[in-house]
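Internal ticket #5521
Category: modeling
Description: The requester needs a full-assembly model to guide mutagenesis choices. All entity lines are attached below as received. Residue total reported by intake: 1037.
Assigned to: D.W.
Attached entities:
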Amino acid sequence: MVNVLDIKVVRDLWSMRLQVLSIAMLVAAGVAVFVMSVSNYRALVGAMESHYRNERFADLFAGTTRAPLVIADRLREIDGIGIVEPRVAKPVRIIREDTNLPISGRIISLPAEGQPLLNRLHLVQGRWPDPLHPEEVIINAAYAEARAVRMGQPVEVVLNGRLQDFRVVGSALSPEFVFATRSAVPLPDDRNFVVLWAGEDAVASAFDMKGAFNDVAMTIAPGSSVRHVLDEVDRLLAPYGGTGAYNRGDQPSHRFLEDELAEQETLSIFMPSVFFGIAAFLLNVVIGRMVEAQRGQIASLKALGFANGTIALHYFKLVTAIALLGSAVGLVLGCWFAVGVVGSYRAFFRFPSLDARFEPWLLVAATLVSVVAANLAAATSVYRIAVLPPAEAMRPATPPALQTFAWLQTMGSRVIPLQYIIAARTTLGRPIRTVLSTIGIALAIPLILFGLYWFDAIDYMIDVSFSRIERGDAFLTFTEPVSTDTLHELKALPGVLNAELQRVVPVRLRVGYRTYRTSAIGLDPGSELRVPRDKALQPISIPADGIMLSRQIASQLDLHVGDTVSIDVLEGARAVREVIVRRISDDILGSSVTMDRSALNHVMREGPVANVAALRIDSAQSELVWSRIKSMPRIEGSSVKALWLSLFNDTIGEMVLIGALILAGFGMLIAIGVVYNSARIALQERAWELAGLRIIGLTRREVSAVIVSELVAELVVAIPLGLLIGRYLIELIASARASQSFQIPVVIDPSSYVIALLLVIAAAFASFIMIRRRIDTLDLVAVLKTRD
Amino acid sequence: MQTSEQEAEDSAAQPPVPVFVARGLSKVYGSGDSQVTALKNVDLDIRQGEFIVLLGPSGSGKSTLLNILGGLDAPTSGSAKWRDHQLTGAGDTELTTYRREHVGFVFQFYNLIPSLSVEENVRLVAQIASDPMDPKEALELVGLSHRARHFPSQLSGGEQQRVAVARAIVKRPDILLCDEPTGALDVDTGRLVLAAIAKVNAELGTTTIVITHNSAIAGMADRVLRLSGGRIVKEEPNPDRVSAEDVQW
């Protein structure tokens, strides 16, 4: 036989269905964010670990100019080293009929037979190159997809300045290029960057590397000292132009991936905590008032002889049912969001398999957390009511200490209409309740603001990075240093409005035991196409001697203006210099060392040469410019700002939009949930009083004014409070997610505050309309028949 | 608007014209099996300044009739009119205006606003009335001017009910409707409330209808209407009205 109290649970749930739904939505928001962020993080980590394991991603990497293969055997003798795989890896350029843009790439040699020992390829399409056909290559799957390359299709590659025909027989994924990007572009440009894997004979002969290597991948034996192995590798490769050995932390793809994972980990802990915290708080407020509103029923049950425990259990069942409903919705939403977000990751991170993971423990944990949080939230109210003696519980809750507000009687009530006095006394007479529901409404705002903030931050990042710092429309990289003649040549091209040369070389900064691999950029004094700036966005002049450091590097190496740092150039003569930090710049995207170009040339012991050109191009003539550039020799690659920005908008922009919509949607749900519940419960508690007002002749509008003005008073305090909390939380999250690759600035546009405010007002307004409908349909006669 | 004195003179000169006219009033709650008929085909005329007592057991239709006359409920069929105000078929706005301008209510459970003081509860109605008396005057009429600054929770039941009476009369209503005004009170307190109601009826000429199932109170009425099963089963004129002090129960 069904317990009658359980029937009451079901009937109560049904009769309060709108309230139940709005509370369940709060739980759902917490569960959804929890499931989404944890499963995203787990999906990325899982995909990375299995890809690295299956394809044997190397632990250490090193480059040289040209080392004989026998050196590889010497490397194998280093104590603590595992597998050593020498290879040839060189920059190349691809020529395509359908584009004038130079497509840059990298060619990597494959062993004569089968897979390499390390950094194996995961074949997506096609087959392995036939050793008897040196023209056969495998290309990276991202490029193959982006350019719709068919198997068997020829590809024209400029190797070492010579055009050579290859044929694509397969496309593959590599743990080295999970995040395939060129330097200075923190997003993969799959259409204009290609990786080719070809037999070692073909590559070695094209680059005059027979019996030699210029790149080596290694593993480290478990328990060995990484530092020791790196030093030994450097020592052995130094005579052969070693560019410095490094571990995964400095491998570009892995570095970016690790940053993203660190950020995801922070967010997967931080965001759900914020959501659950807010949801639990709101549940406490809302359920507390719901239970309070049923004190009469509770008193009757107690009078009938029900034990406190039985009554408490009854309410816990009610709360658990709501939490379970919310969890169910949250699990579905969370999984749905997770699938969407993981899908958008596929554009950035190329893994053999990257799928949203919904491990059973996660779903169970999310449900448990929400049920426990909801019951904890309800516990105080249930306890308070359960311990009341029945007679006391049967009386209405003690009215607020109205005498405290006697001043309202003498001062205000002759001027202010009495409806507002009722509202004011009720609001002030229950300060704790008022404060709690005000904070509840306030907490909706940070979520909305957090969603909008991403747009502002990204707009700001784009504006600062690509309108103020990087002012060129396009960048060309050269296969070897070029002189001022090339500058004149570029400037003379019709359609080129301005051109500047830059010297960009890989360097390693060293302070004590700390090192940082990055690029040093040599700029001419008064450079207009790259303008380093400080925090206030004021241009910083390039120091004539010493270096300018990005703030991220400075803080990571704990360097300040005036400090000395050792800079190892990882190219050419491998100069090592002590330099003084002269200025700190505030770059948002990327981090670099900036120097005077002639000073860098001096360090490099070379003439006034450069290897990068920044261009400003008349957009009307850009096709003409690129067709001329295509035929120029020594061009390694290019990047076009407009293309890059549109790529950015298509990928990151979409991701941010989805995220913002989810957050703003949850924020609005919370605002509606809290405002509606406050109003609904106020109505429930005071239906009798309000109906009384209607009976004595107050209009619906006048009666609504009582409840609405109470809520408006809470909103007036809640909105600025919410905006402040929002600002604080954003600062907290921004500082928690600061990564090496980029820093998200704390920039909130005034319009975002206004939108957040308007959305909360809209949510409140929607609640008012629902409440007004309730007031309009108050059953006056029924109210008369019951005592308060 | 006519003053009650003028109306009193008018009624003395001519045969009294009924202010309330109800014909064939019926009220059915619910539908199907759960259908309950609260009023059955009730005809009723009430004259200006009359003190009417509605007597009858629970469920006899007293409150339903009072609610329809007070503009709180609508009949299922039939018509009800107060002067030129049609109470049947009127919309919420008209009924609200009718209650606001003409009707004063007193209920068994006082229905005071807990967050307003005694004086404010009375002033709340004065605030929305077109020709109210001074709230202090209304409180004086019920003998509570000394409690003006107290809150309802600080008053006894009888005092609260007298505040409800003061609140009902402050607008100088044409009609005073009281549903079991002494139902929750002891004899002595009940008498004080009844005295206040009788005083308003006598001094302001307010048409007064009191519901009770206490037949002793019937002695105060000009006319007693007995209801049973949704019909008026007996109508008893009472030429020998007694004062509230003399009511015994």
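Resolution: model delivered.
Comment from assignee: Chain B is about 30% helix and 25% strand.
Ticket closed.
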